[in-house]
């Protein structure tokens, strides 16, 4: 096993790296472990890093690398040391298309003399890298073979795609196709493209078909056309959908006509017809639904938001419980800790018994008749055999200081010194023990007493603390009031800050933004939150009254005073909860928001009370009255200060009334009739009326500011971004601004689209989405041009794809379309409404799936979809059926009643897409919706999106996956550095920018070497400029220039070569959309700041 491991390389699915090792240190460590000589190890490291373009990162710590770079490092670790067997588990996950292509080239280069086992979700990756490909379903092997073999067995054949001109004659084209290929199938007929499936067994007829299409191209209204063979994605999808068939995996024996062992499923080979292809439009249509409006819609949205809050509290009951216990427990603990102790302490007897076994050293110097008496009485005074007398010869003090055991065992010690005139009896004590001084003195006194009065006499010494001083009435009244106020204030600071958690989480995760896009009213959102939090707050305050009873604070409960107390608490909650909502906008993490708001609430109350006390006892002449009044009025902003003042003055007022009613003459209290009969709710000084009014006003003010933040602030941000910042920027960039926004040159299609939008005003009336010279600049240091002067018009029923790398500006464009970001210049119209002027009308017409899942993870899939159905206003009687239809469409039903936080990444993306598609949006925006999905899940997603497009909705999708845009986009643009590099239908872009064909040839296994060389010579001479990209075990992959080589010519030549050179199979495809994409988006030149 040790030898096997030396030749084995592994790249696991998750990066297993050391955070505090650099890239080169990682490789040196694994190189030495695999047995590379140390001198050779550095050369090998430099070579590998250079191959993977990581030389500049060789001294960077692994924790600082991006996800794609970490994957590259994991691949290098697997390859270093000349590993003969390399296992790569999804090696390119997290890489963008350019990095993935670069990794493929390296793996193709390094696969010589190695065996590589690779797992992947990217079918194009398996197609490029795999000499043999195996597909597993539910843990069992379903098929295995080369790419050409699997495509031949499970593929649908060729796809011919035509770009339609305005006068395109679909009927005549169909007649022509069926004339040459009777088994052809119409695959798609969209506004811009027409596609057919051509069975593979009819390749001999392709030359005549393509010749007729080329000759009659203008007559039939065909702008351009191209062909491609079945993709591995289609093969995977078809194999995965055959679980219900009985399978029999058989390894084919080597035959003269076979290149290598091919594993196939016999029954499956016959069960699929050549033209079978999943139809995205199949499936039951969603039942017709009725949408509520007006008062019913408001009521439905309010109840949906209230149920959301209730579910949060129910699923996070421990959080609510801890929040309540923090209030009750902190108040009870603080109140008990400062309360006077009940009764007096018991007396403590001073003897050695309280210390356990001890040693009592003693020393005697000189002779006297009293010495034996003293020692006898000393033994009697110890009172127990647990205490040992030990005579010390010499200096007793030196013995005690030098003997370490004395610190632990010796509590007291004694010395008897006899001189000519006197006897000196000395008691020593250990100052580390409690009560030892008094104990030593008590023993000495006992010995002396017994010496004088006889052995029966004794003294008992006890320590009893003096009773606590009972405070007078004045002290009690004016100390308790502040202590109770501070205790309540501290508990409320812990409790009230918890109401910010859900608001921060929803805003940061963009769940709140999605709710607003679903049409929820601002009032419904905030008032439902306030109502539920107020219910929780009120219930906790009722429990707090019970703690008052436990702590014997009857002042707040007796004689209906509990109603006054609840009124104070309710008005405090009315002021403090909206303030927490308002302050939550300052934070991006729920936990940090809670901690900082606890500190804010507590310290604002404490310092306010401190300042108030200073002003109360300070000489009025030391500060102007205007300044004093201003500071005191400023303190009223803080609800915790108002709460503390209310509790303080309420306590003082009722204590005063109590003492004035009991005593006729109290010097320190104003017990006149005017003071004892006035109302506690008076607006006078030292009454609570003023503070209650201020808290009422604070609640309304904070709610107004929250509404202002959600609505009016958008217009202010737009104004400053468009006219203030951009105006200053234009002043300094007069000459260079146009060049920065548009660049040196612009693609013809992009330019024509802009001119069409600017010159034809009627375009805005018919377009679902109209983007007119949209620009976004981040005014930072340095200034970042995220989106540069883009224009596009998208009609209803269109699907527009936006391709680009990370940092190209795709997500920024989406944020401007949804109102999450303001545009620096330009206009956006959705369904005829301008987003800068009618934001809330626009928001209710958008379905949005953001790049990161904006889900409420404490809910189940069914609950969150029901919530969004209510936000859209779907009739309550139809919600269950409507939600079930979407769950079934995206195969989420098995997970519908599970908590979302338990979902896989793919399930979360499907759920996010379902939320974007449901309701009645006019425009659907999908930002990389298929991230983390396997091919089958992606097909489900494509079917749902296609169904939405066919229902008349306009769809805009961004993606890293070109095959995704190729599948259902009617038009697309490639975005680089914030600007459109090209624009058109997928087939149009392939024809316009594609200059090569991809040719794959499989020769028979018994083909002689000289005949194989003749084939290579034939390809090279017949197609000048062709390049052999890969040769492996009889598989030849060529790139053939498309210039001067029509489809008819290429198929004609290859059909002749098939017989001449005994080819087992071949396939020819035009350039893929990904290859077009890579020609525009050079990763080394793109900006990483957007």
Automatic annotation (TrEMBL):
One MF term in the entry's GO annotations: ATP hydrolysis activity
Keywords attached to this Swiss-Prot or TrEMBL record, sorted alphabetically, are: Membrane, Transmembrane, Transmembrane helix
Q: Which Pfam families match?
A: ABC2_membrane_3, ABC_tran, R1_ABCA1
Q: Sorted alphabetically, which CDD domains does this protein's record hold?
A: ABC_subfamily_A
Region (Disordered), start-end ranges: 268-288
Q: Specify the protein name.
A: ATP binding cassette subfamily A member 3
InterPro entries from the UniProt entry: ABC2_TM, ABC_transporter-like_ATP-bd, ABCA, P-loop_NTPase, R2_ABCA1-4-like
Q: How does it sit in the membrane?
A: Multi-pass membrane protein
GO cellular component assignments? membrane
Q: Does the keyword Zinc-finger apply?
A: no
Location (main, coarse): membrane
Q: Where is this chain compositionally biased, Polar residues type?
A: 268-285
Q: Which organism is it from?
A: Rousettus aegyptiacus (Egyptian fruit bat)
Signal peptide feature range: none
Which residue ranges does the record assign to the ABC transporter domain?
A: 769-1002
Spell out where the chain crosses the membrane: 484-504, 516-546, 566-587, 594-611, 631-653, 688-709
């Amino acid at each position: 096993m040790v030898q096997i491991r030396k030749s084995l390389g592994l790249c696991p699915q998750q990066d297993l790296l050391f955070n505090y090792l650099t890239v080169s240190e990682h490789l040196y460590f694994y190189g030495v472990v695999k047995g590379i000589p140390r001198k050779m190890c550095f050369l090998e490291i430099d070579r590998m890093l250079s191959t993977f373009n990581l030389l500049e990162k060789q001294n960077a710590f692994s924790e600082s690398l991006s996800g794609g770079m970490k994957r590259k490092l994991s691949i290098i670790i697997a390859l270093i040391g000349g590993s003969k067997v390399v296992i790569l588990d999804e090696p390119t996950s997290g890489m963008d298309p350019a990095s993935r292509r670069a990794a493929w080239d390296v793996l193709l280069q390094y696969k010589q003399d190695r065996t590589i086992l690779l797992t992947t979700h990217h079918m194009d990756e398996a197609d490029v890298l795999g000499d043999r490909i195996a597909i597993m379903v539910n843990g069992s092997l379903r098929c295995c073979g080369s790419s050409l073999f699997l495509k031949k067995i499970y593929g649908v054949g060729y796809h011919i795609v035509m770009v339609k001109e305005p006068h395109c004659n679909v009927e005549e084209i169909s007649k022509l196709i069926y004339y040459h290929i009777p088994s052809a199938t119409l695959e798609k007929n969209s506004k811009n493209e027409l596609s057919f499936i051509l069975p593979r067994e009819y390749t001999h007829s392709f030359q005549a078909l393509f010749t007729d299409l080329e000759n009659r191209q203008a007559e039939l209204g065909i702008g351009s056309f191209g062909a491609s063979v079945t993709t591995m994605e289609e093969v995977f999808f078809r194999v995965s959908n055959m679980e219900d068939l009985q399978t029999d995996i058989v390894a084919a024996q080597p035959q003269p006509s076979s290149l290598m062992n091919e594993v196939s499923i016999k029954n499956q080979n016959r069960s699929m017809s050549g033209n079978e292809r999943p139809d995205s439009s199949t499936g039951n249509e969603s039942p017709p639904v009725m949408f509520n409006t007006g008062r019913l819609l408001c009521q439905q949205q309010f109840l949906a938001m209230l149920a959301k809050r209730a579910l949060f509290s129910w699923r996070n009951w421990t959080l609510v419980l801890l929040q309540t216990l923090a209030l009750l427990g902190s108040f009870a603990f603080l109140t008990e800790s400062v309360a006077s102790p009940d009764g007096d302490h018991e007396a403590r007897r001073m003897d050695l018994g309280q210390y356990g076994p001890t040693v009592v050293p003693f020393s005697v110097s000189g002779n006297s008749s009293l010495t034996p008496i003293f020692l006898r009485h000393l033994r009697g005074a110890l009172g127990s055999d647990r205490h040992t007398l030990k005579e010390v010869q010499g200096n007793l003090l030196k013995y005690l200081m030098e003997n370490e055991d004395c610190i632990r065992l010796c509590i007291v010690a004694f010395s008897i010194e006899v001189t000519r005139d006197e006897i000196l009896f000395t008691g020593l004590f250990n100052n580390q023990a409690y009560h030892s001084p008094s104990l030593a003195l008590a023993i000495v006194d006992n010995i002396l007493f017994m010496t004088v009065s006889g052995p029966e006499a004794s003294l008992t010494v006890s320590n009893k603390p003096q009773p606590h001083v009972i405070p007078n009435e004045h002290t009690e009244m004016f100390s308790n009031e502040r202590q109770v106020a501070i205790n309540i204030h501290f508990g409320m600071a812990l409790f009230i800050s918890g109401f910010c958690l859900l608001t921060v989480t929803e805003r940061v995760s963009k769940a709140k933004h999605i709710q607003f896009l679903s049409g929820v009213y601002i009032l419904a959102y905030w008032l439902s939150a306030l109502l539920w939090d107020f219910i929780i707050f009120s219930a906790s305050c009722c429990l707090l009254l019970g703690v008052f009873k436990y702590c014997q604070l009857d002042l707040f409960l007796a004689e209906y005073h509990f109603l006054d107390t609840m009124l104070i608490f309710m008005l405090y909650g009315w002021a403090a909860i909206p303030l927490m909502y308002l302050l939550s906008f300052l934070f991006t993490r729920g936990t940090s928001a809670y901690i900082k708001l606890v500190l804010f609430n507590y310290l604002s109350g404490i310092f306010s009370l401190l300042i108030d006390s200073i002003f109360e006892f300070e000489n009025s002449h030391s500060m102007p009255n205007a300044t004093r009044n201003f500071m005191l009025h400023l303190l009223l902003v803080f609800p915790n200060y108002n709460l503390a003042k209310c509790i303080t003055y309420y306590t003082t007022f009722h204590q005063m009334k109590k003492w004035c009613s009991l005593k006729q003459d109290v010097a320190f209290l104003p017990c006149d009739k005017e003071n004892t009969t006035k109302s506690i709710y008076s607006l006078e000084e030292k009454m609570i009326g003023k503070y209650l009014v201020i808290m009422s006003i604070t609640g309304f003010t904070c709610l107004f500011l929250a509404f202002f933040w959600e609505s009016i602030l958008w217009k202010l941000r737009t104004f400053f971004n468009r006219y203030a910042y951009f105006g200053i920027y234009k002043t300094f960039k007069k000459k260079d601004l146009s060049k920065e926004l548009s660049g040196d040159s612009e693609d013809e299609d992009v330019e024509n689209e802009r001119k069409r939008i600017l010159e034809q005003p009627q375009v805005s009336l018919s377009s679902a989405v109209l983007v007119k010279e949209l620009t976004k600049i981040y005014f930072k240091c340095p200034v970042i041009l995220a989106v540069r002067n883009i224009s596009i018009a998208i009609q209803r029923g269109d699907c527009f794809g936006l391709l680009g790398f990370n940092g190209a500006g795709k997500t920024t464009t989406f944020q401007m379309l949804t109102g999450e970001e303001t545009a620096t210049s330009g206009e956006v119209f959705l369904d005829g409404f301008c987003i800068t002027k009618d934001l809330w009308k626009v928001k209710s017409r958008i379905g949005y799936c953001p790049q990161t899942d904006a889900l409420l993870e404490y809910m189940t899939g069914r609950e969150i979809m029901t919530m969004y159905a209510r936000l859209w206003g779907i009739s309550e009687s139809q919600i269950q059926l409507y939600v079930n239809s979407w769950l079934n469409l995206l195969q989420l039903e098995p997970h519908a009643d599970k908590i979302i936080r338990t979902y896989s990444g793919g399930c979360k993306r499907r759920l996010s897409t379902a939320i974007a598609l449901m309701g009645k949006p006019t425009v659907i925006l999908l930002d990389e919706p298929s991230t983390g999905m396997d091919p089958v899940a992606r097909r489900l997603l494509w079917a749902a999106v296609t169904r939405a497009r066919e229902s008349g909705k306009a769809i805009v999708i961004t993606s890293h996956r070109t095959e995704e845009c190729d599948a259902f986009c009617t038009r697309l643009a490639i975005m680089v550095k914030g600007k459109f590099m090209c624009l058109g239908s997928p087939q149009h872009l392939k024809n316009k920018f594609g200059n090569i064909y991809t040719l794959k040839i499989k020769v028979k296994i018994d083909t002689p070497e000289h005949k194989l060389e003749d084939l290579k010579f034939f390809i090279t001479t017949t197609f000048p400029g062709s390049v052999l990209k890969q040769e492996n075990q009889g598989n030849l992959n060529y790139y053939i220039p498309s210039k001067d080589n029509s489809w008819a010519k290429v198929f004609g030549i290859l059909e002749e070569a098939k017989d001449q050179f005994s080819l087992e199979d071949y396939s020819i495809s035009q350039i893929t959309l990904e290859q077009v994409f890579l020609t525009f988006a050079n990763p080394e030149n793109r900006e990483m700041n957007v």
